[in-house]
Structures are given as structure tokens and as C-alpha cells.
Amino acid sequence: MSTATSKADNFIEEIIVEDLENGKHDGRIHTRFPPEPNGYLHIGHAKAIVINFETAKKYGGKTNLRMDDTNPSTEETLFVDNIQNDIRWLGYEWEGETRYASDYFDELYALALKLIDKGYAYVDESSAADIEKQKGDIGVPGTNSPFRDRSPEENRDLFERMRAGEFPDGSRVLRAKIDMAHPNLLLRDPVLYRIKHEAHHRTGGKWCIYPLYDFAHGQSDSIEEITHSLCSLEFRHHRDLYNWLIEALEIFPSRQIEFARMNVDYFITSKRKLKLLVDEGIVTGWDDPRMSTLAGLRRKGYPAEAIRNFCMDTGVTRRDNQQSLDLLEFKVREVLNRDAHRYMAVLDPVKLVITNYPEGQSEMLESENNPEDERAGTRQLPFSRELYVERSDFRKEPQNRKYYRLAPDKDVRLKSAYVIHCDGHEEDADGNVTQINCTYYPDSKSGDDTSGVKVKGTLHWVNAETAVDLDVRMYEPLFTDPTPMDHEDRDFMEFVNPNSLVSIRAKGEPALAEAQVGQQFQFLRQGYFTVDPDSTEGHPVFNLTVGLKSSWKG
């Protein structure tokens, strides 16, 4: 449905419906997502992406992707490529080609000259420290720059000379001429252009002056005739300048609307601090599975569908909000429970010997791939006398009667196989169990059980002779505190979790040796795991995506 009669589900959509009903912009809806290519996108960006693309789609509109590439010091083509990959991975395609603020540098320069000619901008030779002092403070009016009353002709000459590269970095800026007593400090003659003799990743050495965000962003929206400029709440105070520039320049009246940014427990969503984690070697890179970046979450195994569902289900609000990691993981499980095949892997193996199973004999047993998907089919598992089971599935002395796993004189079922009876165990000099000895009931095969033996416990296992070695990376949150940025008296680095990554060597059923990068499995009774790009042929590396259980009660 893409008309004004579409039900509005939040305050942004209420504004859009009203605009459509009033025939504003001839009933056209056009949004945009404008990231700065100075890092990877994170979970907070996912919220903005979903809001912009889904809102436009609901009302038959379009969404542009525009790189806010106005700072050559921090931006790289690598980041541009990853941003595009992340958005496509999330399931969205933007209108036309990727756009860049740098596409509009000539037009922005012309608009700056227009402001100068109208007496709305001037070249200031004050230092950055002096400009900061001139701004005053909340409730304290600022003071005019000594260069504020230059004539438009003199300002144009100076600005053109700035453009020509005549002056060094930091020696001059172009400021809007608004009101040094304005209650919004951002309107106290904000800086619009600065000198930066640095090559740009797209324009090379063509420019030595670059627009600041507040000038490039709004005017780029107008150049693209964006009808609804949807952005996070941190830009609320920038809206006044956004609107002032539209009126002063008499350009297309894009409308800025702010929504609350989304924060998630145990994640940080500051690109500067994410970069610090990379630079300090706390993580292996921007795509480390412990990072809040979309590349990291993808590598960990979070499905794009789950992230979209999470962003949509948490809603659109006017107040910043903190979301539970449990809810995000719940959304991940919803998708993986439906889609992932069930395989068996033993993470902490101990040998189990079925003493009455004939030596040298083996057989193939059938096991279902996914009980949630009848189309998933079955596979064959090798079974013989010696197996591996989880060390934690055996106790020398059970603590209570409700213990249904292996213990002396206990019966359990092996998944898709037989019921076994525990006869005893062997241990080393330190009391560590080295082998569990059992007997099996030959007439208790799964699917054809005539033994009459009743059991309440079922264990996963792998055949010792055919088991393959698996490198498994077990992840916990990167931080020990759910909001590591909220402590004014402590550095967020103090909350880095030393146990956020533990690598183990596991045993898996033989089919796992052929698993491909990105393939996802539920390891029975363990969790959901995804094959990491570090895998090599015949030797996969698995990342723990999410455990089987959640405390989320939503």
C-alpha cells in the first residue's frame, strides 16, 4: 500500500500522511541515508537504514544513499565499499547510483558565494579558540567577530582566494552571519567552510576548502530534493540552522525530522570508539564478531532478517532508548530456529565406549536435519563402538533425582541412535574422567524401539572414528557492563571483557568438514554456529552466533 490512506504507525508516518493528504511535493516521498565514510556501519545505523528505506517503501517513495564525504582526513574508499555492502546485505537497494556530497562541491561553493553576496556569510580570520570564546554560553550572549562587518565584496574576494589555495590551513573560515545572541548556540555564526590542503578520496587535489556537515548536509538534501530528511535525535539542534539556510538560500525546502537513536546493551555505537578498539588491538578488526558493526554481526552469524525485525519491532520514538541484547538475540533465534540445520558437535569431548557393541562393526543411522522444516530432509550418521560425548553430560554422583544424563547405573538415549546404560567410568590420577563405559540395548534403535526401556534424557554424540576436528570460537559480550559509555568517572575500556573470546577444539560429525563460509547450523543442545571466513578447506572454523536459550520474556 503506498497512498495517504496507509495507516500511520508512528509520528514520522503521521507527518508523511498529512503531507500526502495536502498534496505537498505533488505526493512525492523521497528519503535518504547519508553516512560518513570514516568507519563501518553499526547496529545504530541499521535502525536509521530501516526507518528510511521502510518508510519510503510503505508510501511508494524512494531512498537515496549519499556519502557525507566532506572530511578528507578520515574518509576512505574502503569504508564506502563496506557501507554499500552492508546496506545491500540488510536487504535494501537505493535509488540510482550512490551519491556523494563531493558530487556537489561546485554547487555548494556556488551556494556559499550566494550567501556572501546576500550579506549572510563572512570570512573570519579568528583562531579556532577565539571563535569558541566568541560564542558565549547558554544564557550568555556571544560577541561579534572583529571581521564580521566586512563587505560582501571583500568576503567574496577572500573566499575565492581561500578556494585558490592562497591561505594556509586554519588561517581563515567562512561563517554564516546569523545572531551571536541566539538561544541556540549552533546559530551563533556557525562555521560553514574550512581550509584543508588534503587530497580527497574522490576529488583528489581539486579542492583545498571543504564544507562542514551543517552546510553540506542540508544543501545536499535540497539539491536531491529530499522531501523528508529523517535523522537521529542528536541532530535536533542542527534543525534550526538547516531551516535558516533553506530560507536564506531560497532552495528546495527539505524537512528534517528527528527520531530517537537506538542503543543496545553491551554494544557501543560511537565510530570513534569502535575505531579505538581496532587501533588498540582489542579486537581483530572492524568485522570482529564481538563488534557492534554490521560486518561483525554478519560474520558472527546474525541474519539480516533478524536485524531488520529487531529494528522494526523496537519502534520509532522521540526519546533515546536502550534495548536489551536478549531481545536482539531472541530475534536471531527466531530466524535460525526456522532455517538452520541441526548437526552434532561435542565441544568438550570425553570418550564413551559401548562395551557390548561388536568391535569393528559400524552402521549408518538416519537423523533429521531440521524438525521445523519438513523440506530439510535427513542425513546419515556413522555409529560404532567408540563415541565422544560432552564431559558435562556425565557425573560420577548425580546431585538429585531429576538428573537425566549419564551417571552410574543410568539409562539415556543417544540422539537418533540407541538407549545406553552407564556401567562405570575410568579416570586418571587426578580424578579426571578419561572414559565412560556403557552397554546398549540392541532393540532400542531410534524410530524402531521395541526395548520397552523408558528414558527421560537424550544426549548428542559423534562417532570417534569418523569425527572431525573443529575450531570453535565461543563469544561473550565484549563488555562486562551493559552501558560501558555511561560512566563519567571511568573509561569504557575498563569494561572490556577478558573472556569475550575463548577458542576451543571440538569434535564434529564428518559432514561438518565440508561446511562452507557463512553456513549456519544448530549444534544440538549447544547453540547456533556460523562458519567463519578464517576457515580453510576441510577445516572449518565456527563462531558461536547465539546460545539456545534466552532470558527475553517479551
Question: What does it look like?
Answer:
The chain is α/β, with parallel strands linked by helices and about 550 residues long. It folds into three domains: about 10-260, 3-Layer(aba) Sandwich (Rossmann fold), CATH 3.40.50.620; about 270-340 and about 470-545, Ribosomal Protein L25, Chain P; about 345-460, Beta Barrel (Ribosomal Protein L25, Chain P), CATH 2.40.240. The chain is built from twelve helices and 27 strands. The strands form seven sheets. A seven-stranded mixed beta sheet has the order 12-25-26-27-23-24-13, with helices on one face. Strands 21-18-19-20-14-17-22 form a seven-stranded mixed beta sheet, with no helix packed on it. The longest helix has 16 residues, at about 45-60. The mean pLDDT is about 95. One of its GO terms (cellular component) is cytosol.
Keywords:
Ribosomal Protein L25, Chain P, glutamine-tRNA ligase activity, ATP binding, alpha/beta, 554 residues, 27 strands, Rossmann fold, protein biosynthesis, elongated, 3 domains, ligase, seven-stranded mixed sheet
